[in-house]
Design brief:
Largest interface: A-B, 22 and 20 residues
Helix content of chain A: 40-55%
Strand order of the largest sheet of chain A: 1-2
CATH class of chain A: Mainly Alpha
Number of strands of chain A: 2
Radius of gyration of chain B: 38 Å
Number of helices of chain B: 30
Number of helices of chain A: 4
Order of helices and strands of chain A: HHHEEH
Shape of chain A: elongated
Number of strands of chain B: 27
Shape of chain B: elongated
Oligomer: heterodimer
CATH architecture of chain A: Orthogonal Bundle
Distance between the termini of chain A: 44 Å
Helix content of chain B: 40-55%
Distance between the termini of chain B: 48 Å
Radius of gyration of chain A: 17 Å
Number of domains of chain B: 4
Strand content of chain B: 15-25%
CATH topology of chain A: Arc Repressor Mutant, subunit A
Largest sheet of chain B: 8 strands, mixed
Strand content of chain A: 5-15%
Chain lengths: 112, 871
């Protein structure tokens, strides 16, 4: 059985690939992550995470087209696989269940 | 606006190829955007950081080659590799021979030197108490010079044994090693041995083959080595037999021990007699013991320290013993110390400042030479192999085109070079085995190949592996990286600097060789210089016979007249030392005008009236001892150095006092070289004394053949001295022995120099042939255009001559520096003249030209039609 545990960063990357849909490749993912989380994200970290996710069969990849700003090099485009999507779903369900079981008084007020 | 180039290069270097495109693309894209947003500097900085960020396992890890299913070790391919390797060797026969023989010779030399060094370092290790045995020695300072000696007073041994019993496990007295006559029945032999304390067998851990180690407890006993026991008793059991020492002492054999190995200090200890027997039989020794003579330094003392202490601590404790008991010699500041057995052999000489050195210098010297020769041979081998392997670029191309993977090519080339190295290794073992007897003779050793020693094999095989892998690495890793297309199309070229290491090698090789040649020439010049020195007496036809039995004493005149009657002898005399040795030096001399502070020391020799005529000394002043002057019984003959040393103008007729006795000088002789021929003669005095005699000097009749004369003399000795074998020594041989150490070094240096030159020339020859082959086309075209053979010869030889000249310029100061240092230790030394360098340089050049010319002329004589036609 494949391990379907995901690290926090991996989860974020996997989600971002889903967000970007067809145009998910290294730079785009890093940019999107920076925009969404507000932290600076290095390309190597993203590539490492993509590599791991692909090994875990949660991502598929193919080579895309080349652009001039890449010096004529092709990009690798990623899509989420069924396993990836199922894992994301199950994480979300777990989280939801947990959220639902928290009694409103248990969390300190957020200043609202 | 590009990202930093070096960072890109770095990325290309470390990043796995299958990931490179996407990663680099992403990096560049991001760089481009950052440049627009934050400016170029920031973008470049961040780019570098991003690149470094990719130093992670996933990016470094290469993708496994999934397409190839070739087995690395398939029997078919292995067979092919061997076939190709063999064909390559056979096809270039001369070349392979040069390569293999060169390496084998280098390895053999290194092995020989290694064995020699091993032998030197394992000296004396036969004794199990090696770590705790020491020689007791004394040190003194006299006229500003430090003297070290191992001759000690007898009571010191008693003192050490009784007052320091906690520090010493054994204290052993020893007579100096000397020749004695051992006789059993009518068998008589002269053998070397010593009188030792009963503790000796335990201390030296003798391996007893019969009897026990306690055998020396009985004062009338003797222990024999196995070889002596066999010569005296044959196969019978010697234990319990009664035999004689020096025809006067009856002793019982109480044990037989295994012969001590050649590489021990005691290798000449062929029998051991008890110390107490020595004391009771020699009156003067008994006197020294009874009167506790602390000033009679005539014996050796050996000691084994207790397990809980060390040499330094004991040395400090016993330091002042001599000073305490013999305060009258306080002016030389005597110090007693222990000299550990581990240092006996390699650190056995002290210079005038008291600094210790010895054979360890030669161990280092030859060790370094060995490493150099090995290095030369090894690099030579690599160079020739790599030069040759460039020829095989096409083979690599074809193999790759047909489907070889790189790892296959790597393993092919590596195993091929290992194969060649293995052949060389086996050959070198064979060479060592063949050369070893000759080497042993030159080096005065009994070395055997350490066939069963794992260290030996570890070194040998380790080195072979190292050389093989290193030599094979160039073709294996460099050639296998060629693109087959380029190689097969012929557009591939070897870099401009590919020949650079080869040139450096030639220079290094010739530097070493030229240094060795200069060294060898100089060592021999130095020996010749000392040999040509006038020695002040005539050693031709001079023989000496030791006076080792009581029968020879008191019958001087009878023996002399009998000997002269035979006609085989021109003259005979006795003396206290042979002319080739100065055995006794004494102080206590006084003369008129002597500086009262000078502690004068003279060599003292007792002679008879006929001594002068026997050895043929030459007078500068005065006359020889004569029977016509009865006053000559208190006469004295000085050598020139002694006359100078005393500072007397006209010494003849002057009076000299020695220990209260007055002597008058009758003559002055030319200096006789009795000690080292490299040192100035020692101030020596000769006195008449018929009782103080230890050798008989005989001058043979030159008109008779030596064997005839000796036969006649032997019959006389047989009647006078029936208890002793007739053993004689030729003085010229004894004198020649003084050069043994220098000659040994000279011979070894010569052998190594020849080998170094040989290996260097092999390398040069190989390289020259390689260069000539590479330039075949060029030479062809030059010939077509009108170049003469001489032009071409010049063209091909020029480079090598230039390299050898550089080597010479480097070697000359190097050799001068080392040899000047070596010569400094000799007082009589030849000068380092310029012509030695000139001659060596010229001969090195000549050898180079001869080596290179063969190839150059061969290449120049080739028919251009043939060379240009082939493609």
């Amino acid at each position: 059985m494949r391990r379907n545990y995901l690290g926090e960063f991996e989860e974020l990357v996997l989600l971002t690939v889903a967000v970007l849909h067809e145009g998910a490749y290294g730079v785009a993912i890093a940019d999107e992550l920076e925009r969404q989380t507000g932290r600076s994200v290095s390309l190597s970290a993203v590539h490492a995470a993509l590599h791991r996710l692909e090994e875990k069969a949660m991502l598929n990849s193919r080579l895309g087209e080349a652009t001039a700003e890449r010096g004529g090099r092709r990009k690798r485009l990623f899509t989420v696989t069924a396993l990836g999507s199922r894992t994301l779903q199950s994480i979300r369900e777990t989280r939801n269940r947990l959220w639902d079981s928290i009694s409103p008084q248990a969390l300190p007020a957020l200043g609202l | 606006m590009k990202p930093p180039r070096w960072a890109d290069r770095l990325l290309e270097r470390f990043c796995a190829p299958h990931l490179l495109e996407e990663i680099q693309g992403d990096l560049h894209e991001r760089f481009e955007r950052r440049r627009v947003l934050f400016g170029e500097r920031a973008a470049r900085r961040q780019y570098i950081w991003e690149v470094l960020g990719f130093l992670r396992p996933f990016a470094l890890k290469r993708k496994r080659n999934t397409t190839s299913t070739t087995y690395l070790v398939s029997p078919m391919m292995l067979q092919n590799y061997f076939k190709i390797a063999f064909r390559n060797l056979v096809r270039h026969k001369g070349y392979s021979a040069i390569n293999i023989v060169g390496l084998a010779v280098g390895m053999a030399v290194a092995m020989l030197i290694g064995l020699w060094v091993w032998d030197e370092l394992s000296y004396n290790k036969y004794h199990q108490n090696y770590e705790r045995i020491a020689k007791v020695m004394q040190r003194g300072t006299f006229n500003g010079e430090v003297f070290n000696g191992d001759f000690l007073p007898l009571p010191l041994g008693t003192e050490l044994r009784t007052s320091f019993s906690k520090d010493f496990e054994h204290v052993m007295m020893s007579s100096w090693p000397g020749e004695h006559i051992l006789s059993y029945g009518d068998k008589k032999f002269t053998k070397t041995g010593r009188y030792l304390s009963p503790a000796a067998p335990d201390m030296l851990t003798l391996n007893m083959l019969a009897g026990t180690r306690a055998g020396l407890q009985d004062p009338a006993s003797i222990l024999l080595s196995k070889s002596v026991a066999q010569t005296l008793f044959g196969e019978g059991d010697p234990v319990g037999e009664i035999m004689k020492i020096d025809n006067k002492l009856d002793v019982k054999v109480t044990g037989v021990y295994e012969d001590l190995p050649f590489n021990t200090e005691f290798r000449e200890l062929t029998f051991i007699a008890p110390w107490d027997l020595y004391v009771s039989s020699e009156e003067w020794v008994k006197q020294a013991q009874d009167n506790a003579e602390w000033n009679n330094n005539s014996w050796h003392i050996l000691a084994q320290i207790a397990p809980n202490t060390n040499f330094e601590a004991v040395s400090t404790k016993i330091k002042d013993l001599k000073l305490k008991h013999a305060p009258e010699v306080a002016f030389v500041k005597p110090e007693i110390f222990l000299h550990p057995m581990s240092r006996w052999h390699l650190y056995d000489s002290w210079d005038k400042a008291g600094k210790v050195s010895g054979r360890i210098q030669y161990v280092w010297l030859f060790g370094i030479i060995g490493v150099f020769v090995l290095l030369l041979a090894c690099i030579n081998f690599m160079n020739l192999s790599t030069a040759r392997s460039e020829k095989r670029a096409k083979e690599v191309g074809i193999r790759k085109a047909v489907g070889s993977v790189r790892t296959q090519l790597i393993s092919q080339f590596l195993s091929e070079s290992l194969l060649v190295v293995t052949v060389a290794f086996v050959l070198s073992l064979l060479l060592v085995w063949l050369i070893l007897p000759f080497f042993n003779e030159v080096a005065d050793k009994e070395i055997a190949v350490l066939w069963t020693n794992p260290v030996f094999w570890l070194f040998g095989i380790g080195f072979s592996l190292f050389t093989g892998l290193l030599a094979g690495s160039y073709p294996a890793f460099y050639l296998s990286s060629f693109q087959p297309v380029k190689v097969l199309k012929g557009t591939f070229r070897i870099g401009r600097f590919a020949s650079m290491p080869r040139k450096v090698l030639v220079v290094v090789q010739f530097t070493v060789s030229v240094t060795l040649i200069i060294g060898t020439v100089l060592v021999f010049r130095q020996i010749q210089y000392a040999k040509n020195r006038p020695i002040g007496y005539d050693r031709n036809g001079l023989i000496t016979v030791a006076m080792n039995t009581p029968e020879l004493y008191g019958r001087y005149n009878a023996l002399r007249s009998e000997l002269l009657q035979t006609g085989a002898v021109i003259e005979m005399s006795t003396s206290s030392t042979p002319a080739t040795h100065l055995l006794s030096k004494n102080g206590g001399f006084e003369w008129e005008g002597k500086d009262p502070n000078l502690k004068a020391q003279f060599g003292t020799v007792a002679v008879t009236h006929d001594f002068g005529k026997t050895v043929g000394w030459q007078f500068v002043e005065g006359r020889d001892f004569s029977r016509q002057f009865s006053t000559d019984s208190s006469g004295m003959v000085l050598n020139e150095t002694a006359a100078r040393y005393m500072g007397i103008k006209d010494p003849v007729g002057k009076t000299i006092k020695w220990d209260g006795r007055s002597f008058h000088v009758v003559g002055v002789v030319k200096d006789m070289v009795m000690e080292s021929p490299f040192e100035p003669a020692f101030q020596t005095v000769f006195m008449l004394n018929y009782d103080w005699a230890s050798v008989i000097n005989i001058k043979l009749n030159p008109t008779l053949s030596i064997s005839e004369s000796l036969a006649k003399i032997e019959t006389i000795f047989r009647t006078f001295n029936p208890g002793s074998p007739f053993d004689y020594k030729f003085s010229d041989q004894q004198y020649a022995l003084k050069f043994a150490a220098e000659e040994r070094i000279g011979k070894l240096a010569a052998v190594f120099a020849v080998l170094a030159i040989f290996i260097s020339c092999l390398g040069l020859f190989g390289l020259a042939s390689f260069v000539a082959e590479q330039r075949t086309k060029e030479i062809g075209i030059r010939k077509v255009l009108g170049a003469t053979v001489f032009n071409l010869w010049q063209l091909l030889s020029k480079d090598f001559v230039f390299l050898v000249l550089i080597a010479f310029v480097m070697a000359a100061p190097l050799a001068y520096y080392f040899l000047n240092g070596w010569l400094q230790k000799y007082t009589y030394r030849t000068e380092i003249s310029w012509w030695i360098f000139a001659a060596t340089g010229a001969s090195a050049l000549l050898i180079t030209l001869l080596t290179v010319s063969f190839q150059a002329i061969k290449a120049a004589l080739m028919n251009p039609v043939k060379t240009l036609k082939t493609e």
